[in-house]
């Protein structure tokens, strides 16, 4: 017999087999998956309890408490980081206005909030990557701008231990935008030396950042912006140089006496 696709076909084949002398069909081979339930029985070595599965209430209560506590700390982190980031932005504004004392006070408050949130980060490190990281970048940006204005140098990473390396680099890249704003303000006062100082620092930073291999992400986007910032500062210096050259030409023209006509006597 050929293997049939259904039980009925198997039985039909058995009835159609020719009855030759000496041939006796005792049974039909039916695939196990086609046999009716009545032809086989499944037995278990032991019985299975049908009682309802129990849930450990204490375990689930503990999980619920953890999630509630985590959510509360996350909300605290977001709110306090918002306050801290706002203070850092205000410090940058104060620095542009020349109010260094006010900027120092705002930066101290920013740092105090960052330290206040440290225990939460120790317990939940994953909360750092978001509001807290953005706050640290803003803090580094303000601190770096302050150090440049006071000392004319770049802030070292060791002077801001609260910031992780990526946060420090992000803050330094953001600070170059503030340097460009400051340089433009100095250019309106014809302070070429100040513009040159800012441009030289940005140019040195460009050389350093070119040594890094940034993957696609926030730092890569900020680094791409650095190229345009440097270009703007170089254009500002070029325009100042042109203005100086034109001014020198005018002064030279005004100071030179007009040429005497032929035959005119000198008195």
Please explain how this structure is put together.
The protein is an all-alpha fold. Helix content is 65%, strand content 0%. The protein contains eight helices and no strands. α3 packs antiparallel against α5 and α6 packs antiparallel against α7. The longest helix has 40 residues. It is elongated, with a radius of gyration of 41 Å.
- Strand proportion, as a percent range, falls in under 5%
- Shape verdict: elongated
Distance between the termini: 142 Å
- Whole-number radius of gyration? 41 Å
Overall pLDDT confidence: 83
- Considering DSSP H and I runs of 4 or more, what fraction of the residues is helical? 55-70%
Look at the helices and sheets and give the structural class: mainly alpha
Put simply, the count of helices is 8
Short description:
This protein has 267 residues and is mainly alpha-helical. Helices cover 65% and strands 0% of the residues.
Structural descriptors:
mainly alpha; 65% helix; 267 residues; 0% strand; 8 helices
Please give the structural blueprint.
Blueprint (H helix, E strand, L loop, with lengths): L6 H10 L40 H40 L3 H17 L1 H6 L7 H21 L13 H24 L3 H18 L8 H38 L12
Helix pairs in contact: 2-3, 2-5, 3-5, 5-6, 6-7, 6-8, 7-8
């Amino acid at each position: 017999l050929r293997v049939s696709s259904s039980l009925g076909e198997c039985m039909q084949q058995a009835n159609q087999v020719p009855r030759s002398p000496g041939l006796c069909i005792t049974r039909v081979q039916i695939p196990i998956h086609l046999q009716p339930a009545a032809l086989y029985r499944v037995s278990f070595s032991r019985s299975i309890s049908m009682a309802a599965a129990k849930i450990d209430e204490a375990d689930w209560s503990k999980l619920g408490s953890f999630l509630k506590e985590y959510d509360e700390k996350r909300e605290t982190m977001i709110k306090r980081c918002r306050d801290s980031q706002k203070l850092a932005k205000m410090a940058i504004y104060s620095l542009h206005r020349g109010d260094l004392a006010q900027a120092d006070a705002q930066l101290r408050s920013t740092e105090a909030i960052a330290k206040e949130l440290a225990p939460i980060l120790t317990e939940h490190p994953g909360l750092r990557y978001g509001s807290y990281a953005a706050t640290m970048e803003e803090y580094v940006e303000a601190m770096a701008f302050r150090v440049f204005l006071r000392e004319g140098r770049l802030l070292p990473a060791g002077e801001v231990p609260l910031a992780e390396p990526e946060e420090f680099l992000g803050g330094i890249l953001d600070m170059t935008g503030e340097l460009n704003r400051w340089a433009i303000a100095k250019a309106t006062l014809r302070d070429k030396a100040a513009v040159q100082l800012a441009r030289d620092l940005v140019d040195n930073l460009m050389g350093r950042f070119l040594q890094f291999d940034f993957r696609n992400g926030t730092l890569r986007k900020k680094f791409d912006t650095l190229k345009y910032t440097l270009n703007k500062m170089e254009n500002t210096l070029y325009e100042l140089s042109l203005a100086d050259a034109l001014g020198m030409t005018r002064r030279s023209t005004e100071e030179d006496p007009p040429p005497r006509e032929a035959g005119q006597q000198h008195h």
